[in-house]
Amino acid sequence: MTTRPDVAARVRKHRRALRAAGLRPVQIWVPDSRRAGFAAECRRQCLLLRKGRGEGATLKWLGKVADTEGWK
């Protein structure tokens, strides 16, 4: 089994390599899809969008500009 210092050293080395490649870490917080009520809230927001004045035009535009080449 790997010891904690081995793992920490490996992670530091990996992060140094990423930074040397010009990358930087970014943390993103997203809604927890496992949380109770998540699906209901998604549905509620989708139904609100369906009634939106510009939603049809936006979806039509997205369909035209989306790069879906090679998608199945």
In short:
The protein has 72 residues and is mainly alpha-helical. Helix content is 57%, strand content 0%.
Features:
mainly alpha, single chain, 72 residues, 0% strand
Plain-language structure description:
This protein is mainly α and 72 residues long. It has one domain (4-65). It has 3 helices and no strands. It is elongated and about 55 Å long. The model has no long low-confidence stretch (mean pLDDT 92).
Q: Mind sketching the topology for me?
A:
Elements: H1 4-20, H2 38-50, H3 55-65
Q: What is the quaternary state of this protein?
A: single chain
Distance between the termini: 41 Å
Radius of gyration: 21 Å
Quick one: biggest sheet?
A: none
Estimate the helix proportion, in percent: 55-70%
